[in-house]
Structure formats: C-alpha cells, structure tokens
C-alpha cells in the first residue's frame, strides 16, 4: 500500500492532491485539516487546527501510525495561509504567530515526527513541502507568508542534506506550485491596492484565465514525485 499524509486536504490544491492519489489503486490518504470534505473508503481524516500548537502536540502521533503493509510513505505539507494582507507595521502581532505556525512551525514538526517515526523503515519515504514563488521574491503585504515559505525551503534543504549524510534514502522536496485557482487566490484578488500593490495584476490573471486548475497541478506534482524528481531540493512547477 502507498500511504500519503496530506495536510490541507479539505479544499484547494490539497484536496486535488488527495483525490488524485485516491484515483490510483493501492493508495490510502490520511488528510489533516480543520474540515473533512472527502468521502472515500481509502480516505481517513484527522481533524486538526495547525495554528493550535497544543492540539498539534497532543495529536501528532496519530498522524504517523505504524503501517506494517507500507510500500511507500509520503508526507505532503500543503496546508498554508496568507493571513491578513497588510504591511509590516500595520499588522497585529498575532498575525505573525498564526502564519508562521501554519506555514512553518507545523510543517517542521510534522516533518520532524515523520523522519523520526519512519527512520528505520526500508520503503521509499518522501516529504514534499508546498512552497511558493513568494519564498524567493518580496511581495508587499505578504511579509509573514514570504518569510515562512523562504524558511520552509531552507529547512527542506537542511533536512535533505542531513538525510543524505545519514544515507537514509529519504527524499525531501519543496515545490512552488504556480498560480493555482483556489480559495487563496480569491483572497488575493480581494486585497486592496493600499495593502498590496500587485492586486490588479492578480485580478487580471484571473480575468485572463491564467490560473492553473488544481486537479491539473495535482496530477503534475504526483507524476513528478513518482518519476524520481531530480536532486534539486527546491523546485518550481514550471521547471518540473
Ligand atoms: N493557490 C495558489 O496560487 C498558490 C500559489 C503558491 C503556493 N500555494 C501554496 O499551496 C498550498 C495550498 O494552497 P491553496 O491555494 O490550496 O489554499 P486554500 O484553497 O486556501 O486551502 C488551504 C488548505 O489549508 C488548510 N488550512 C488552512 N488553515 C489551516 C489550519 N489552521 N489548520 C489546518 N489546515 C488549515 C485548509 O483546510 P481547513 O480550512 O479545512 O482547515 C485548506 O484545506 C499552500 O501551502 C499555499 O501557500 C498556493
């Protein structure tokens, strides 16, 4: 059985990834998010708020069971938030906790627990951290989002280096999925120019039908993962 743990599986790219995985035989998905929206006999849901660190600590072992029939195990850290779009200095301080917890601290804890829980297995193991082009360029109004994704990319590179030094064979990748037609893009289009100078550009991308469909992006990502992605740890969808 090929096992996938996917955070943010209730909608957007995470749901598309879960459904794409389930379209193949011999797969099982454990989805982690606040809401459960997938009904499938090979889907199991772990309700969890990834901004609630206490809940995460209390439930984290449930996410990584000992699967004795595993032929492979993949963790996809997909859940992510932009938080309120506003300039640094015009934000609440709590915003930084919220965005960093969901986008960085929770994925780091999940990756850490995955590596520790499955280190002695001999089957292929992969961690895919969903990043963003915003990890590599400053976007006004998205400070915490950009910084959290940049940190997630570096953490992925460090973790891969460590796994290579250990000779574990575990693959860690970070992938920016491009501009995908999801609820996050709706939020971006709703931002005002005062807090986000690129608002008009993102509205135009939508009007001009330039957003990628989440199911297409999901298929491309799974195809890339199954065809042994290159040694490069950080990748962008247009280069895979
Ligand atoms: N869409 C794009 O254009 C784009 C571009 C670059 C990168 N990305 C990245 O792609 C990933 C998926 O984004 P998306 O566009 O699919 O976003 P989305 O449509 O807003 O979906 C976000 C997912 O994350 C989950 N989530 C949010 N807050 C959570 C929390 N506190 N606890 C647990 N789960 C939580 C949501 O589930 P619940 O609400 O049920 O909890 C939902 O399933 C994110 O990492 C995002 O940064 C997206």
TrEMBL record:
This protein's source sits in the domain of life called Bacteria
Native organism: Hymenobacter defluvii
Tell me the classification of the organism that encodes this protein. Bacteria, Pseudomonadati, Bacteroidota, Cytophagia, Cytophagales
List the keywords (alphabetical): Cytoplasm, NADP, Oxidoreductase
Q: What is this protein's name?
A: SDR family NAD(P)-dependent oxidoreductase
Q: Does the keyword Metal-binding apply?
A: no
Q: Where in the cell is it found?
A: Cytoplasm
InterPro entries of this UniProt entry?
Biopterin_syn/organic_redct, NAD(P)-bd_dom_sf, Sc_DH/Rdtase_CS, SDR_fam
Q: Assign the protein's first listed, main location to one coarse class.
A: cytoplasm
A Pfam match:
adh_short
SUPFAM superfamilies found in the cross-reference section:
NAD(P)-binding Rossmann-fold domains
| PROSITE patterns to which the protein is assigned, alphabetical | ADH_SHORT
């Amino acid at each position: 059985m090929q096992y996938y743990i996917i955070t943010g599986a209730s909608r957007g790219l995470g749901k598309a990834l879960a459904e794409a995985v389930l379209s193949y035989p011999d797969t099982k998905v454990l989805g982690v998010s606040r809401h459960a929206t997938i009904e499938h006999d090979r889907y199991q849901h772990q309700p969890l708020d990834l901004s609630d660190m206490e809940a995460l600590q209390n439930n984290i072992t449930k996410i990584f069971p000992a699967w004795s029939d595993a032929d492979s195990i993949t963790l996809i850290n997909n859940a992510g938030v932009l938080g309120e779009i506003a300039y640094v200095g015009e934000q609440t301080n709590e915003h930084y906790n919220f965005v960093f917890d969901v986008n960085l601290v929770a994925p780091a804890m999940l990756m850490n627990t995955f590596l520790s829980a499955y280190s002695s297995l001999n089957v292929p193991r992969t961690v895919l951290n969903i990043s963003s082009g915003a990890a590599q360029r400053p976007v006004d109004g998205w400070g915490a989002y950009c910084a959290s994704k940049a940190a997630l990319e570096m953490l992925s590179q460090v973790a891969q280096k460590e796994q290579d030094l250990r000779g574990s064979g575990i693959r860690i990748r970070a992938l920016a999925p491009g501009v995908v037609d999801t609820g996050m893009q709706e939020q971006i289009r709703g931002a005002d120019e005062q807090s986000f100078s690129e608002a008009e550009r993102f509205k135009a991308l939508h009007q001009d039908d330039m957003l990628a469909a989440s199911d297409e992006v999901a298929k491309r990502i799974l195809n890339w993962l199954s065809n042994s992605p290159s040694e490069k740890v950080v990748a962008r969808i247009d280069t895979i």
